[in-house]
Amino acid sequence: MTASVVVRRLAALSGAGAVAAGAYGAHGFKNSDPDDYQRVLFETANKYHFYHSLALLGAAHCGKPAVAGTILIAGMGMFCGSLYHQALTGDPGLRKIAPIGGVAMIVGWLAMIL
After folding, report:
1. Helix H or strand E encompassing 88
2. C-beta of residue 102 within 8 angstroms of C-beta of residue 44
3. Which of 21, 58, 60, 96 is the 20 to 30 Å CA partner of 12?
4. CA-to-CA distance for 83 and 81, rounded, in angstroms?
5. pTM of the predicted structure, to 2 decimals
């Protein structure tokens, strides 16, 4: 199986996960205050999860799909994962890795140049 096929399949799984998380967020937070910080964190994580799931589709067609895909997935895990974690648990323990994940997502976009 080629790297582009693997990355394309991971993009599909990530997109499906983003839809499921968005549905959970829409229903799980429906009785909360719209300005609630945990809700804002969840919506931010979900938005970036969607954007970067689409970016993975592009990464599957770049010159180095394994490099770009790996960096994007790592960035999504660190950035979106830490925000999802804090939004769902209230525990800010992983928030320090969010900026690292953000940088990784930027690098992942740039890796698609290769």
Report:
1. helix 65-89
2. no
3. 96
4. 5
5. 0.85
